Structures are given as C-alpha cells and as structure tokens.
Amino acid sequence: MIPLTVLKAALICTVAIGMTGGLIAWRERPTPGSVPLAVLLAGQCWWSVTLLFRIDATGIAAKAFWVDVSWVGIAVIPVAWLFFSLEYSGHHEYVQSRYVAVASIVPLCIAVIGATNVAHDLMYVGSTLVDINGVTMLERTPGPWFWIAAGYTYLLGLLGTIPLLELITSDVLAFRAQSVALIVGLVVPWLTNALYLLDALPTYGVDPTPIGFAVSGVAYLGALTRFRLFGTNPAPIRYARRLAFDRMEEGAIVLDSNGYVVELNDRAAAFLRADPNDVLGRAFPDAFPQVAAVVDEPEPTDRMVLREDDGTRAYDVSECSIVDRTGRTIGRSITLHDVSDHLRRQRRLTVLNRVFRHNVRTTTQLILGHAEEIDDDGRVADRIAGHALEIEELSEKVRRAIDLFDRDRTDRRPLSLDSILRDGIASARDARPDVTVDYDGVPSDVYVDGLLTVVFEDLLENAAEHNVDPDPHIRIDVEIETDDDAVRVVVADNGPGIDDEELAVLEEGTETPLRHGSGLGLSLITWGVDIVGGRVEFADADPTGTVVTVHVPIRPRPS
Amino acid sequence: MASQPSTQSRSTGPTALRNRSTVARARTVLERLRNALLYSSTYLALVAAAEVALVMIVLSLPVNLSPLVVGLVTFAVYVNDRLADLETDAAVAPNRTAFVRRHQRVLYVAGALAYGVAVAVAVTGGPLAFGLTLLPGAFWVLYALDYFAALGSRVRRLKEVLIVNSAVVALAWSVTIVGMPMAFTNAPVTPTAGVLFGYLFLATFVNAEIPNVPDVESDASAGVATLPVVVGVRRTRQSLYGVALLTLGLLAYAFLQGFLSTAATLALAVGIGCLLGTVAFLGRSDAERRLALSAELSRVPALGVLVFITLGI
C-alpha cells in the first residue's frame, strides 16, 4: 500500500502543477487550445482538492460530501479535453458554442447528480467507512450514473485523441513532439483511472486519477515551454495550405493517377474561364483540351507556353508528379503562370531596340551630313554637329540599357573577366585616346556573367570620357575572393569625381522630376551589377577622381 | 593627450582594476536585486507575510504555513496587477514599468507558479484556507478586469469608484491576513481577531489612498475617482489623519476592553504612528513614491516591536 503521506503529497503537487499550468495557459488566450486547457486543468485541480479534503475529513457524511462535490470538476475534464484537442489541431468548425453546449449536457447532469447524490443515490447506491491499514476510508458502491459518467468520459477522451493522432502523422516534427507530450498527458490519467476501476491500485480506495493528471500537467507544461505548445501552433496549417493553394498567383490543376481533374484553384478557373463544377471529375483532355495538348504533346523546346486564341494572354505551363510516402506516383499537378505582361514588355523592348539602333543613328548621320553643308566658318555647323553627336551618344546608352534588360531575360553566358575588361579598356581608349590605363590582367579562367560587358564598357568609357585632367589616368585592380567565390574589381580614375547628388539618387534607386541623375551611365552600371547579383560602391579618390568597386560572383567556366 | 588614460591605468595596475570591477559588479548585482525586489513587488509579499506573523503572535496561534501562503498570493496578485496596468503605469512609474515590461514573461510564470504553490499549500490548511486563497484572486479579477463593462451594466470598474476602490483592496487583504492563519489553525473568531481585522482594514485603506496623491493627474485624466482627485490633496491628508486616528481609537478601546495585551497595543500603535508620520508628508514632499513605500512598510516596525517585547518579556 502506498503510504498515505506520499499519496497526499502527490495530490498537493497535482494542485500546484495544475493551477500553475492553468494560469499559464490562460495567459496565452486567444491562442487556439489555451482556454479549454485552462478549464481542463482547473477541473483537475478541483478534483485533487476534493480528494485531499475527503482523505482528511472525519465521518461518513463529510467524506461523502467531498466525493459528491468532486463531480463538478470531474465532469468538466472530458469536455475541455475534447475541445482543447479540436481547437489545437485546427478543427475550428467543430468548436462552436452549440457543440460545446451539446457536449456539456451529459457532464452538467453528471455534476448535478453527483453533487446532489445524497438526495437520490443515482451516482452511488451505498457508502461505508472501512479501515485500510489503520486509515479510515470511504468505500462507495457505484450507481447507474457512475457508469454513465465513466463511459461518457472515456468516449470524449477517445474522440479527443483522434485529431492529435492526425498531428502525430504530421510532417512537422516539432508538432509531432508536442503531440507525443499531449498523448502522454492523455494516456496516463486514463490508464490510472482504468487501473483504479479494475481495483489494481493500492491507494486506500482513493481514485488516484488526478495524480495521473499531474503527469498530464507536467507534459502540458513541457509542451508549453520546451515544445512551444502555443508558440508554434499547428491550428492554421490546415487552412494555410488551402489558402495558399487558392490564393497563389499561379493557376493550379490537380489530376489523379488516372488523369481526371480532382482539384483546381480560383486562378486556374479564371485563367481557363472554367466553372469548377463543370470540370471537376472530368478527364483532363476533355476538361482542358488546350492545356492537355501543351502538356501531353510538348514542343521540342524547354518551355511549354499556352497561348489564347485571340493572342491577348499567354501562360507558361509546368507539370510535376505528386508522389506519396512510398514514392508511388498518385497524381500530377499542372501549374499555369501568366506571362502575358512579360511577353508584351519583351515585344516593346524589341521595337525600342530597333528604333535606337537604326532610326536615331540614321537620322543623326543625316543631320551631321547636312551640317557639313552649312557654310558659316563652322560656328553654327560645329554646334549642330556637337549636339547631334550627343544625341547619338545618348541613343547608344539607351541601346545598351535595352541590351542589358534584353540579356537579363535571355540565357546569359559566362565570359572571361579578362576579355570583358580588355574590351572595356578598348572602349575607353576609343573615347579618349590619350588615357593611360594600368591593368595587370586577370587569370583567363576567371569567368563572370556575360552581361557585365555592358557594365565595364560603360564604367571604363565614363572614367576616360569625362576625365578633364590633362593626363587622364585609370587604374584597374582585380582581387579574387575565394571564400565567397566572388571577384572584386576596383576602377580608380583621376577625373573630377561624381556629384554627391548623383550618387544619392543612385543609392535611393528612384528618381522624381525634381531629383534625378544627369544621364544613364551610372544607372546602367548599378542596374547591371544588381542583375548579376553583385554590388557596387562609389567613393572619392584622393586627391581627385572616383573609385568604383564592383563585387560580382564568379561563374563556372562554360563547358 | 590621447595616450593619458592608458598611462593612468597602467600606473594603477591590474589589481586596482580588478578591485574596481569587483566593486562595480557587486554594486550592479545589488542594484538588480533591489530593482527585482521593488519592481516585482516581492517586498509587498514579504510585508504581507510579516503582517500574518504579526496576527499570529497577537492571537497566540501555533506556527503554520499561512505566512508563506499569503506571501505567495500577494506576490501573484501584485505581479498580475502590474502586468495588467502596464500601459497606464508607464507615465507614473516609468522605471518599474520598464522592468515589468522587460521581464513580463518570467514575471507571469513566476506569479502563476506562486499562486499554484499557494493554493496547493492552502489545501493543507483545510477548506476555509483554500477558499481564502482563492478570494484575492477573485477580488483581483473584480478589481482589474472590465467584466462589468463587458456585461453592459452600469457598474463601473471597481477601480474607478471613489473610496470603493481602496475599500475593496483593504477588505480583501484584511480578510486574508487575519483569516488565513485562523483558518490554518481552526482558531475561533474572537473579539481580538475582529479588532485586528478592523485595524488592518483601516490601515490598508490609508495605504491604498497614499499612492493616489502622486497619481492625481493621471487618475483624473483616466476618469478614476480617488480621494485626491475628488477632494484635493489637503483634504485627503486630513481625511487620512482622521482614519489613522480612528484606528488608534479602536486600539485604545480594544486595550481598555482587554481584547489586546499591552505589548500588542503598543506594537500596533507604533504601526499607526509610522503611518501618521507618512501621511503628514503627503503633498508636502517631492519624494511621493518613497512615501507610498514607507506606508506599505509601516506595519513592519510593529512586528519588530512586538517580537522585541515578546522576546524581552
């Protein structure tokens, strides 16, 4: 027989743990599961307290009184457990006042019948005082409602376990650990109660189930802190997955293993102008013949593009298999990505490229030719020619910008950094033949994004062209940062430096009609470096000039 | 010039530096301890436990766990109150609010644990002790939560009703402090217990109104009707003199009727003397926070005097 003092100490600990856990759970409101858990622990505390008073009470009436009123707490526990489990696991559709009320009808009867047992003997039919190892204890014969209460409690306890078993099979490990803690919290008291009902526990006839709940309390507190029971709550997962599927930018169609449409999201229905009620359950080629034609008979290119008949919209189509845990394919998912705007911009860029490449240049050449025919000792003619050349230079920059964006969306080949820099130096010398360039070269196996051709051409040309020093000078230093798999190119010149206002506009990245840069050159450098995933810094050189540092990732040598 | 500080530190040597850092560290530790004791209201828990001890000595009750229970409950209730009033307290007690805000998670868990242990220990004192332990928690809910407003009734938060606010606090604490040791020991309700209840009720009422003086502006803007808000600081001081003198009258009556021993009367009078001293400075001192603290500690000298006389006798 367990010593009575040990039994009482365990019950006192149960009260302390239950009360503390309940208050901590209460603090977490409105996190799902917090209120039912607090109620559950309060019920458990009341049960333990009444047990302690019952042990200490003298006389059959006093002992029976504490047993009777203990039912108020006992009745609360299964209902609180069930709704804790439902709320915590995200089954909010069942956590509604009317369901709580319905589930509480029997417990309410249990509490009332238990507390008023003295009047009707429905819970217990007989009570006697017995001497167990020198301790006077109450022995009661269960009545019909006792077994109703036990059966209902076990039923709700079992129902509450089901959502948690779902969580145990969840993919999220943290939640699985939480669920194990929660299952321990469930199993221990029920097991204790079952053993008590089977008369297998040496506890002076005292039901030690609340002590089992102390273990529950520890498990819950552990889950509260160690497994962050409420810190990371699984309740939204079921909804989040559904929400992500419904609200994603892409249209998605899910096919089962036999090729029937089993799910599609709102976006897919809108893209394909389909009514889900019409297409769900139909064979894929029958429901979406155009999409099926693209997916099942792909063109010999990497991309699958679905174009609408009127040519207004186009979609990138991709397909992936859905596999279960065993690796078996159980279906397919087809996603449609709207690329209409992208293709439209692409067409516009092509037109602009043509205009700047041919039309502006041709017109400028015509102006230059006509200017030469003006006979005024070159005064007006030279100014016209100068402005015409400025227009041509600007058109060249715009063309480079278009080229930059065009390369961004096409496949970009890696190029040798050395060759890129040497091309840039050649451009600088074209712009300013007397410029001195110090460059020690880079190992030829250092490759970077080919798009940087535009960047370094522009950077070196700017450094030479705008240099007003009588002895223009450019120094290029290259440092390979093996740790980061990147390369740093530092271009220093002895020119006039870059205006602070110009740099500020570049750093902000946006322009307004009142605050803007003077041209396109510096923007081209920052845009290009940004596209390749690098970064660029501008600093003043001593005594004059600019130091431009470009960090860019090294690309693998093309095979 | 720039090298001067390093030259100085070399000349004083590493031992001096170590000594200084040890002193500084000790000072930091002490400061933290003081902040924790003061801002977490742990000192109030100790004061409450001391008051229970005072009651136990006056009523000649056997030693029991009631001071522990009352101390833990006090700690839990005040921690919860500080956490609930975090927003409104920011203006009047910035340092305390900062401390509570920084440690709010730990404080809440500590408060919950204190209350859990208090309830569990109170169960060993019997059903009455258990009920009394739940009482301050229930009062705290009434006192701090807006349940009445939520119900749409015309009953306002008790905290905002003149005199009722301080009276509720005084009632809860005096019932708990006198009742808990009696419940633990199954002591009968005697006239002496009634006198102690009256004494603690009146003294706690004075205590509760004293911090309202520095809070007069924030309470007025928040619509909380306290004595200083309604009748002004001078009248408040005079009223509190009145209450303190009434308490002294109660002590005199109890002594003459033989409900209190000479030692107990003297000790309890010392407590009221301390309280009167504090009230005298109300509205006349800039150290208003210290006045509130002094009022809260005013029964501690009473316990000291009683212990001294008892041991001396």
UniProtKB/TrEMBL annotation, chain A:
Reactions it catalyzes: ATP + protein L-histidine = ADP + protein N-phospho-L-histidine
EC number(s) on file: 2.7.13.3
SMART domains from the UniProt entry: HATPase_c
GO molecular function: ATP binding; protein histidine kinase activity
Keywords: ATP-binding, Kinase, Membrane, Nucleotide-binding, Transferase, Transmembrane, Transmembrane helix
InterPro entries: 2C_sensor_his_kinase (IPR050980), HATPase_C_sf (IPR036890), HATPase_dom (IPR003594), His_kinase_dom (IPR005467), HisKA_7TM (IPR031621), PAS (IPR000014), PAS-like_dom_sf (IPR035965), PAS_4 (IPR013656)
Keyword RNA-binding found: no
CDD domains associated with the record: PAS
PANTHER family: SENSOR PROTEIN CREC, SENSOR PROTEIN RSTB
This protein's name: histidine kinase
Organism: Halopenitus persicus
Lineage: Archaea, Methanobacteriati, Methanobacteriota, Stenosarchaea group, Halobacteria
Automatic annotation (TrEMBL), chain B:
GO cellular component: plasma membrane
GO molecular function: transferase activity, transferring alkyl or aryl (other than methyl) groups
One Pfam family it belongs to: UbiA
InterPro entries: UbiA_prenyltransferase
Record keywords, A-Z: Membrane, Transferase, Transmembrane, Transmembrane helix
Membrane topology: Multi-pass membrane protein
Compartments in which it is found: Cell membrane
Record-annotated membrane-spanning stretches: 36-59, 65-84, 105-123, 129-149, 161-183, 189-208, 239-256, 262-283
Predominant place of localization: membrane
Protein name: 4-hydroxybenzoate polyprenyltransferase
Organism: Halopenitus persicus
